[in-house]
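Session log. Operator J.P. requested a structure for one protein chain; no other inputs attached. Running the standard single-chain path with token output.
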Amino acid sequence: MKNNPRSPSISKQSPIFKDKTTTAAVPPLGRTYTT
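Structure written below.
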């Protein structure tokens, strides 16, 4: 579970928020958090 330097704020947000925003912005990042 490594936070990308691109979205340090998303890593602190709730999992739901990350899944929706991260998945749309960075698919690989969203999958890592969702899994």
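Operator note: The chain has a mean pLDDT of 54.
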